[in-house]
Amino acid sequence: MSTLFLNARLLNPAENLDTAGSMKIGDDGLIETVTTGGEPIPAKEGDRVVDLAGKVLAPGLFDMHCHFREPGQEYKETLETGSAAAVAGGFTGVALMPNTRPVIDSPLGVAYIRHHSAGLPIDLEVIGAMTAESKGEALAPYGKYASYGVKAVSDDGTAIQNTQIMRLAIEYAANFDLLLIQHAEDKHLTAGGVMNDGAVSAMLGLKGIPEVAEPIMIARDLQLIAWLKKHKLNGAIAEPRYHVAHISTAASVELVRKAKAAGLKVSCEVTPHHFTLTEHDLGDAVEKGNFIMKPPLASEENRAALVEGLRDGTIDAIATDHAPHARHEKECPPDQAAFGIIGLETSLGLTITELVEKGVITLSRAIELLSTNPRRLMGLETIRFQTGRKANLTIIDPAREWTVREADFGSKSRNTPFMGRTLKGNALGIYHNGKLTMR
Length: 439
Prior knowledge:
The chain is α/β, with parallel strands linked by helices. It contains 13 helices and 18 strands. The strands form four sheets. Strands 1, 2, 3, 4, 5, 16, 17 and 18 form an eight-stranded mixed beta sheet that branches. Helix 4 (163-175) crosses helix 7 (213-231), helix 7 (213-231) packs parallel to helix 8 (250-261) and helix 8 (250-261) packs parallel to helix 11. It starts with a strand and ends with a strand.
């Protein structure tokens, strides 16, 4: 049975496309016809017709930074419930960080995820650990990762503190064309910290995390990369590709901005909670657990710098850092709360509400940040609205107002600071792997 999407707004930044049109997809999941303007696509008997009445048909959203907790912490999330959350948020694919139990630090772990994700409605990319057990002491098997189709490595949740080990990680990742994703944190500065170090932490009596802990680590890494590019045996290694996860400070954004200007292959992502909230939101909250995360919510000055980085193109992607936790891990004193929040179901709404509606970026730029760029950074195929190409689509209503409610979540966990907030814009459904799933 073919599927016809009629009267849509076709929006695909990869093709510089933003126009009214329609699309027909065959029962094999491949695009048969794309028309623009008012030209109709005639339906045949048995065709499924979806009149989008001006709603947006965009390339499937992709989140390059998620935690689905399986294996080892299935009480928080599973591959199945994480995928349900992704579908609810309009995502057709995600990349999973390796800090599970056990850590995904070998092809065996990669094979486990792939085996147990077969048949799920979204694509799962597996990110391998940088070091064995993410301990920062010995490199994981990068060559074997590459042979299994792994496209990125990260010790997310921690950072390699030993500079020599980090140098080796950069070199080996480059030679196997793996994107190196850095959770930038000087652990000596952050040890025992709960929230941003400042007036609010002092008022609450909570140990602070100095914001300089992030840019110090980024600066070290960028110095290594620049040195390797200049001096390493006349091209004996490939040029590294370095990506900063969940960037959160003005100093970090400026480091990335300057590195890009210097010609380094550097990129970064920001989470919706970091461009939306500040440390004052944590201070004002009655229940503070869902405002505890790493990196911590920072000052308004830092939040504004993140917004400017999105505006001027320094920041390449929006990623959720979807981090499910059970209620008892959040409904507790803030200095005992687990770090992190869920984000797949609110990401698109927060992006449209806080960035598009406020004139910071266009909707096309939002799709670039949520789909086109993450796929490019991860080395995935670009989605194009062309005859014969696989249909991988997200259906978006950018004008729909909705309230974040616990009952609507696909995730097993409920740890979000946005519960009860009214947002504008969300996903109506996805079309992926030959299947239409509408909310």
